[in-house]
Design goal:
Two copies of one chain form a homodimer. Helices cover 22% and strands 30% of the residues of chain A. Chain A is α/β, with parallel strands linked by helices. Chain A has two domains: 165 residues, Medium-chain alcohol dehydrogenases, catalytic domain (Quinone Oxidoreductase, Chain A, domain 1, Alpha-Beta Complex); 128 residues, NAD(P)-binding Rossmann-like Domain (Rossmann fold), CATH 3.40.50.720.
Chain lengths: 319, 319
Amino acid sequence: MLAYVLEGRHAALSAHRPRPVMDPAGFVRVRTRIAGICNTDLELIRGYMGFSGVLGHEFVGEALDGALAGRRVVGGINFGCDNCERCDAGDSRHCATRKVLGILGADGVIAEEFLIPERNLVEVPDTVTDVQAVFAEPLAAACEIIEQLGGTTRHRRTLVLGDGKLGLLIAQVLAVHGAEVDLVGHHLDELEWIEDARVNRLARTLPEKATAAYDLVVEATGSASGLAEALRATEPRGTLVLKSTVAGLHEIDLAPIVINEITVLGSRCGRMKSAVELLERTSIMTEPLIDSRRELSEAESAFARAQEKGARKVLLVNP
Amino acid sequence: MLAYVLEGRHAALSAHRPRPVMDPAGFVRVRTRIAGICNTDLELIRGYMGFSGVLGHEFVGEALDGALAGRRVVGGINFGCDNCERCDAGDSRHCATRKVLGILGADGVIAEEFLIPERNLVEVPDTVTDVQAVFAEPLAAACEIIEQLGGTTRHRRTLVLGDGKLGLLIAQVLAVHGAEVDLVGHHLDELEWIEDARVNRLARTLPEKATAAYDLVVEATGSASGLAEALRATEPRGTLVLKSTVAGLHEIDLAPIVINEITVLGSRCGRMKSAVELLERTSIMTEPLIDSRRELSEAESAFARAQEKGARKVLLVNP
């Protein structure tokens, strides 16, 4: 079958990847309908995690086996060992020996078919389109913030730093949950539509008046310098949500965290069910996040496009 | 009067400092009984905060004016403006224009007398000795952790990194509140007494088995490298309390905060009332933290001793 495969630091389309066989206990096969290219995929190609195998973890597909066979599905990307304290507590996302779809020890979704634990699947309701559902994984990561904050952000003076794909989803999710959201980012000129989601485009860089002005700040710039800006914007005893995974050592002044007693919340993957429910019952906008759609056979050019500066979400369709 | 005064980066005992006059509205005079030398005082001498004036913020004294005149008192060190949102909410510790006793814009306590807002004073019960009460300020900083964690640390697997004065108070306060506390620090050999406070001396450096083993970790090493160790010890979704104020830029890998969804809580000053109550109703040990006692007139040699490696709390007595 067709699959986009990373070996060492070389990623290429293969036409002869063997189809996955339903073998490991509890796993089912899923036919990819649409896959999304994530910045993490680009980092994996640069050597992050030392991953080898089929790339991709953002998908909407059709289950081929199990109780959901024939239905449209999305799925959680962490595969727990199912045999530890974390997994017992229902939190396979932090299982110490977990595999991660297309990231760590498990082939991913940029292929005609792939394997996933059946319990990770969530059915996609008829009212949610494929091009919405393919955003379920990053949207779940945005929903995770709401869960970590106890379920609501009502009336919170909120700043989102970063207007990349994740930042734009986070800003919308926070607004849907009642926050008053200001957005800082480099592409605000092109983002008139985000105001329809009740997100205020504040400025390209953090203005002086924003110092200590927010009780909730989300750092989603994807760059190491974002944290210092975020700390400046957070009021004493406020909360700063850290979303950017920036590998390596970076110079940072931590004293403001202590002096202003700021709570820094590390935040990663979320629950797919929350994301699907949000797509079903709210008007989270995903269409403006899409850069282009290509067929799976065009994966090479799709990845080339995804690596260009300013590219938004590149989708791969399995026809 | 006698006072230990910092001018520029030169600190010296003065015999001719004018006695403070009760003038600013709401302030009262306090006669110092005992003052403690804090590491912050040493940092102030090195230029931190650009402070000039009488040093010192740890004290037990006798109120000379106001409702508590003639009584033994300790007191909160932050002087709020009493005219902003923060102060209205009772949190002068985070007032943006606050003064801080002996640290920022207000003369401190290493003198025969000093001024403090009357509302900052807390009376010391008869059952609490002077040499216990002089630890109220750092003890309040330890109590702040309990308040930030919602009032209890019962059954939490806890690691305290750092066996300096603050680390030893924090370890005891957490144990008193029900935590199972392990302590890592460089002077554990001299600390048999801490086991009487139900604190387990784990090791001088963080052992391999401590990786991700604690759901609560307190970083009180006073050094920039402490955070990386603390992150290693914190389990996924655990809480890391950051107590060390280390000025300047430091190299740090922040990815573990995000990947393991760790909550980092910056933690600074606490409420004096909590500290005094703890001294009254529990057996927090302060005596082993004391290095030596000297008279106020010996402030020069006291500061010299306090700057020596391994020195514990040096106390200055106003006879």
